[in-house]
Amino acid sequence: MNSDNSTADFTPHAQRRPPSAVKRKPLYLIRILCVLLAAACAAAAGALAFRHVESGLLTGSLISVCLAVAIAAFACFRAFAETERYVRLYLEGNGTESVRRIRLHYSAATEKLLAAQLESSDEAFQQEENRRRAQYLALQNQINPHFLYNTLEAIRSEAVVAGLSTVADMSETLANFFRYTVSTMSETVTLADELKNVRDYFTIQRFRFGDRIRLHVLIPQDSPLQFYRLPKLILQPIVENAIIHGLEDRVRGGEITIDARSTPRNLILTVEDNGKGIAHDKLIEMNRQLGMQFSSAERTGKQRGIAVFNVNERLRLLYGMHCGLTYCSMPRIGTTVEIVLPPAPESCR
């Protein structure tokens, strides 16, 4: 009887029997240890975040630290879970070669998952750094125009008294333009506000160019799109760029047309001019740079409108990489700029 029992213990069927309660004990210990360690890391990340939320000091860097701690907790859990898996495979009778093949497959999947988590953390950190950089550049290039439009208002008053209506109108329009730009860049405005600012800017340019340039806005005044909200100073830099680089050399007949179309996925504003256009190689390079991350794109004074890149990056920082600017152009025909924005809400359709 004893020899029979001894023989039965080494049959393949016996090797695949569920492990005994004694053999399962290491698995329970491993599970308890990994759960406790993961819980400790997660609790530390949560406490750190909660403490700084209460104090109002939650920054991008701190968010990255909390994410790193959470990822470490996840990695610990997966590492111990993987160890538990190997022990279970051995206890179930798998040979060393079988376990090795399973381990290679599982390790690759684990490394891929952790790499994705770390990449997500890096992207969050990079996005915060890009936002800080944009804010710094905005502050660096800011001027304080209060004294300027107060002076313009004084000039307008003197011009009215002197009967110089043209000077008075120009001073008033310029003062309105500066009032619009003086507030914080983070403020959102309606499309109607943006279009009014463009008209003020164009009026100022008409004092210089006269009838050589004209502006056409094809968006109806009563269109619901007029109430669509967007960051301020999106359209005016595009129009300015069109005048300087497209229409400045025209003797007559220069035209800029602004239109909008709404799709289920986006609102697309277009600014079209009939200027001299952009050479094909320069157009490709410009669109390439518009598609680059802000931190990796080199900006030089020789580029076609630094303000254009500023608009593009502000839109991407606010709405994501799917929004921004795209240029289409043909030499001696003209240029069209598409400004891709988030879809219009139901109230604006």
TrEMBL record:
<dbReference type="InterPro" id="IPR050640">
    <property type="entry name" value="Bact_2-comp_sensor_kinase"/>
</dbReference>
<dbReference type="GO" id="GO:0016020">
    <property type="term" value="C:membrane"/>
</dbReference>
<dbReference type="InterPro" id="IPR010559">
    <property type="entry name" value="Sig_transdc_His_kin_internal"/>
</dbReference>
<keyword id="KW-0812">Transmembrane</keyword>
<dbReference type="Pfam" id="PF02518">
    <property type="entry name" value="HATPase_c"/>
</dbReference>
<feature type="domain" description="Histidine kinase/HSP90-like ATPase">
    <location>
        <begin position="230"/>
        <end position="345"/>
    </location>
</feature>
<feature type="transmembrane region" description="Helical">
    <location>
        <begin position="27"/>
        <end position="50"/>
    </location>
</feature>
<keyword id="KW-0808">Transferase</keyword>
<feature type="transmembrane region" description="Helical">
    <location>
        <begin position="62"/>
        <end position="81"/>
    </location>
</feature>
<protein>
    <submittedName>
        <fullName>Integral membrane sensor signal transduction histidine kinase</fullName>
    </submittedName>
</protein>
<keyword id="KW-0472">Membrane</keyword>
<keyword id="KW-0418">Kinase</keyword>
<keyword id="KW-1133">Transmembrane helix</keyword>
<dbReference type="InterPro" id="IPR036890">
    <property type="entry name" value="HATPase_C_sf"/>
</dbReference>
<dbReference type="Pfam" id="PF06580">
    <property type="entry name" value="His_kinase"/>
</dbReference>
<dbReference type="GO" id="GO:0000155">
    <property type="term" value="F:phosphorelay sensor kinase activity"/>
</dbReference>
<dbReference type="InterPro" id="IPR003594">
    <property type="entry name" value="HATPase_dom"/>
</dbReference>
